[in-house]
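As a warm-up, study this chain.
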Amino acid sequence: MIIGTSHKSTLVVGKQHTALALGSGDMPVWATPSMLALMENAAMLAVQEQLEDGQTTVGAHIESSHLRPSPLGAAVYATAELTATEGRKLHFRVAAYQHTPEGDLLLGEGTHLRFIVNREKFLNR
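Now compare it with the structure written out below.
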């Protein structure tokens, strides 16, 4: 794995991404679980092309702040950068942002741990 490999995943906040829809809150704003999922997606895709046939990665731990709300229709994105590896362990720095006319606002940031696994063996457990 190449340290510094990164990826950016994007979405527009829809009703299905809100705290109200996911049950993590009672307001129609971008839900923390949805933000974390987008961060995980960015990390997964950052290293996907470097994996061997039959391999994938699975999330094991994520820790992040969630600093401000994003309304329905907001254009948001998450970034993930591979910062370290330890055998099958992959460590990432993750962050989420919202595009605004004034510039991109930081919504949350943290760290994420993924493991490289054999897809078939993992599913057969």
